[in-house]
Amino acid sequence: MGASRAIRVGTPVEALETPVLVIDIDAMERNLARMMSILAGTGLSLRPHLKTAKSPALAQMMIRAGAVGVCCAKLSEAEVMANAGITDILLTSEVAGVGKFERLVGLAGWVPNFKAVVDNAHAIRAIAGLSRAQGVTTKLLIEVDVNTNRSGVVSAQEALALADLIAETEGVELLGVHGYAGHAQIRPMETREPVNEAAMTTLEEAVELLREHNHSIPIVTGGGTGTSELDAARGVLNELQAGSFLLMDTAYRDAGVPFELALRCRSTIISRPAPDRAVCDAGQKTMSHDAGPPEVEGRPGVTYRRGSDEHGSLIVDPALLDRPLEVGDVISLVPSHICTTVNLHDVFVGARNNVVEAVWPIEARGHIW
Ligand SMILES: Cc1ncc(COP(=O)(O)O)c(C=O)c1O
Predict the structure, then answer these.
(1) Ligand 1 proximity of 244 Cβ (cutoff 6 Å)
(2) Nearest residue to 171 (alpha-carbon basis) of 90, 105, 103
(3) What domains, with CATH codes, occur in the chain?
(4) Ligand 1 atom with the shortest distance to the CA of 186
């Protein structure tokens, strides 16, 4: 029989079986309030990216706090959010292939304020053809590469050519531009500011050219956790796509962004083979390592060295321990990269004052198709 995980509200956090992701609800709420205060009065609205939280419950919480809608990275992620009743979704990754275009147009006919980014004429024509066949108009945003060297058109002229094509094609409607400065996000402020400035100037030039040619561009969207304050001050974007700010990770903490670490993975010491080594039950299937190993919190002298599939190998410096580290002890691990760590789990446990207050399914985890 398959195991299912029953976690009850009211359980003390110390009693939870590990490994388990625990959200400090107070810290998460402070992060959300902080983001809303950064954006207040600036003309920049929050459209959080759900590639981080992957949970309809957390998405609804951000909408209740004032987010204008959400971003999703994949159609399947968007379908989970649509099923949960979210009515304003921006798909921020291009798709290709007939099946994908059909699902995209399906979302356009289902979700009142669904829109998707495009960066090529092939996609525009395919989406338009299927939209006409379904009797819907699919709203599109043109993705501009703002020096990230990922997807997106690489010049304002190319953006204009696509805008003209959308304008003259029945079944699609131009709603704006999207330019995500991913390369600006996790950097020290000295370089974050000029790199983001160059990115926003690139986006601004495309917006201006499109507007000069009578394309109305109501949505200018992009930005993330690292650039939130810069984007609020710069005034090019009117929607901010930040996602990591809600739960945070050590990569962003080390870059000095103004949000708190709000999620830990609790993990048990399962072996103590030598005075200078210990092993915990959280390996790479529990904590992602793409941005380096997780950090052990509150245990001086204990460092996470590397994870194998299901084991976390820890180095112990006995001289630095403030108390013995023993088999059965539970340690707190802070993720180095929140998005890829959350994607490994089925549920978040939300806790306040170390008591479980909520269990939130991470319904879109693994939804990469
Ligand atoms: C297109 C897009 N927008 C927004 C984000 C969210 O950014 P952050 O994790 O910095 O909050 C990402 C993250 O990778 C992204 O790819």
Answers:
(1) yes
(2) 105
(3) 13-20+259-361 (2.40.37.20), 25-248 (3.20.20.10)
(4) 10
* CA 78 to ligand 1 centroid distance, Å: 15
- Classify residue 320 by its DSSP letter: G
Residue 2: predicted pLDDT: 52
Confirm or reject: Cβ of 92 under 6 Å from ligand 1.
yes
Tens digits of residue pLDDT in 287-321:
999 999 999 999 999 999 999 999 999 999 999 99
Q: Which two tokens stand for residue 321?
A: 């321990």
- CA 148 remoteness from chain centre: 17
242 Cα to the center of ligand 1, angstroms: 6
Q: Give CA separation, 340 vs 244, 265, 301, 363, in Å.
A: 11, 13, 27, 14
| pLDDT for 4 | 66
Cβ of 49 closer than 6 Å to ligand 1, yes or no, is: yes
Chain segment 123-165, per-residue pLDDT in tens: 999 999 999 999 999 999 999 999 999 999 999 999 999 999 9
